[in-house]
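Example record

One chain of 306 residues, shown exactly as stored in the release files.
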Amino acid sequence: MEKVIIDTDPGVDDAMAVLYACLSPEIELMGLTTIFGNVTTDIATRNALALLEIAGVDVSVARGADKPLVQEQREPAWEVHGREGFGDVPAMSPALSAIDETAAEFICRIVNENPGEITLCPVGPLTNIALALRLDPTIASKVKGVTIMGGSIDEGGNVTPHAEANIWQDPHAADEVFAANWPMTLVGLDVTHQVICTPEDFAALVPDAPKLGGFLNDAAQFYFQFHRKVDGIYGCHMHDPTAVISIAHSSLFGVDHKPLEVIVDGEEVGRTKISEKSDRNAVAILREVDVAGVQEEFLSMIKSGF
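Predicted structure tokens for this chain:
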């Protein structure tokens, strides 16, 4: 079983990823840390707590950073995920509360308590991960791995021609994370743009899992409308769940190994590119994907819920 901390800015596809992790018998969810991006950090924290409450899972939520390391904060992705993060689903009021530790403190503590066992899975901007490294650089030698949903090599960007949203929101943090000496996997747009689920796929979740599947189906309607208008696709890209699935099902992906860096200013700010810096370790870059396998894994796991 993979012990995973998901760093998240829920977000419709974040909800898919978190609920998948809650249900998967191959993942032990060790906690959620929250970050700005799709929504503000306040809303992300509330939504993370709500997801755990919906799933009936009792793990810690640690509130993360409110703003990027260096650059000015960008507007949240309201047009993609809605003002409250879950499309047109009204804001929820979870009974659960976040713990007193910051996201960086929580990450460092859990990694130190479980050396060699924790996979960090950031599916939002990488600010919390960079702050955890700054707080305790030794975690780089203690994690099992870091699986990042973000960036792209060949696919270009989804917020600018060059930049993917998570990297663009805090490019300085992303570059610090890519410079660290720890085992990293990049699950970028090169694979997540290939994995698309349709409105029919989500509607089919409801009979088997009326609570969890019903919630995701309701939340995804806004997401479908965005993708139809902006990308011209009938469905939605499965960005964040694909990253979580890759942790326990690496056989579904083809991988390339290259060092990476991020452009932190100028016209191409937020671009992830192959690095020629001699001090950077190779990152496992997912470039190929068994689309049907990932779709089936996600849909069947949610259908196994309630």
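Notes: The radius of gyration is 17 Å.
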